[in-house]
Give the backbone structure.
Amino acid sequence: MIATQLETSWQRWLIRIAVFLAMLTLTVPGVWVVLTAFRPNIEVMARPAIWIPQDWTLDNFRRLFGFSSAQQGLPVARYFLNSLVISLTSTVVAVLIGMAGGYAFARYRFKGKATLFLAFMLSRTVPGVALSLPLFIIWARLGLIDTSVGLIIVYLAINIPFTIWLTDGFFRQIPVDLSEAAQIDGCTAWQAFWKVEFPLARSGLASAAIFAFLTSWNEYALASQLTRTTASKTMPVGLMDFTAQFTVDWTGMSAMAVLIIIPALVLTFIVQKHLIAGLTFGGVK
Amino acid sequence: MISTINTLPKAAGRSLAGFFRSPRAVPYLLLLPGIVVILSVVLVPLLVSFWTSFTSYNLTRPETLYNFVGLRNYQRLMGSAEFWWAFGRTFLFITITLNLELLLGLGLALLVNRITWGQRTLRTIMMFPMMFSPILVGFQFKYIFNDAIGLANNALFDLGLIDQSIPWLVDGTLANISIIAAEIWMSTSVFAILLLAGLMALPKEPIEAAKVDGCNAWQVFRHITLPFLMPFVFIAMTIRSLDVARAYDMIRIMTNGGPAGRTELLWTLMTRTGYQNSQMGMANAMGYVSIILSIVFTFYFYRKLTAARAFMGGAQ
């Protein structure tokens, strides 16, 4: 490109340095928390600061799972399981329901289509905190407070609109002719969907699923009000167990933070190209 | 679903059952589960909270749910300095963070776009903050900005820039700067990644033609790159304004509205009123204000998005 030829070498170095500093800013806070998770508490409190851990330890993680005699273990294993069950269930169901909706918007013309689409999107603008107040009142009367089912239903409502938005975009990328051709060749509409259109939309569905999973896995505002005990508390809510009135267990919290971030990290890196495609395709076209 | 409709040929006249068996019903049937979920988890609760915002409902006294007080909650809000401070602060918080995130995200996208080697890795690193739960971001920055053991003060000490701890989260102004910094760290990537995707989709020909015609770098950016990027800007803005309220999680753990209410936003004030003071009626009235605020921001950018799309469509 012309621009590259005109660029002087100091300009190129300036860009490289700026990018390096930006990436440093994006990674250092997270890395610092990860390092803290493997430090003994004394190192955290040390003055002057100890930058690189001198004394690597797994004690913080042992403490979380109750393997340490020194301190009473927190039910973190239970929180982790709750988070996993709630996030996975709500993701699978939300993707199925959202896919049906997205398909309807992409393939059919019907009365009230534009209004309905807008209504779905508007439902997503309601802040979780604001929704938690009336949900708390209703869920209490229905006996859904502190149950996994109660939280799964709520996460469905959060994830369905976004899934519809994404899958609508992806189904519209697939030519209608393909499904029609399959039906002329003797497939039913149902078979044509599963055998032709579904496989083509798979990367879109994957990104929708990741977004749904991450949203549920990371959600705090609603979970903090709708859960009470180990029966349904999720990881983000459990993180607050570490803060007492005046003291904060920094190393314990850091260890728990690592446990929360690892599944999200692994999942996102596996499907990152779908993620970006999902965001831009669903949006622009 | 579709096949069951086809196997039911006796579509009867104008009755409702007849409608549901006709092919016209297919899109509605496909949407039905989604509609049911949204109705029961969003619309019904919104109606309930609308009702409670007109009552003196107190969590500790369930019978007050039916104690209609008219507009008293709203009147009290309008007369409450605490509420107006929180409202103004929230509005300012959203405006400042969205604009700074856009500027920084645009800058980052432009920089990364100029780098030819290792761009994929850079993009992966940029996604890093997006995976963080807001509550984790809050914890992380609560730790970093801690005055005794935080990374920020440690670094400044070791560089010899300060000889006394800076009370990041204890001083009102600094606490606001800290939560804005945390919010920007959390969400700039959303802009950077979307705008980078836009830059990569940018057609090369118009830019080269403009350069041949003697445009300088700024003119190219201003008249070709930026208009092309606008739909991406508005997508990012729409996505972000959809979930600005997730800043609540972050602030809840960082300052929870403190010190002395100096970082109190609508969302923290709302939960404090609802759950700690049990004044559900009042809290729901505030909830409605926050919902309207979110809708206004989202709707504004959504309108801009459709306008930008129409503009792009016309240009092509």
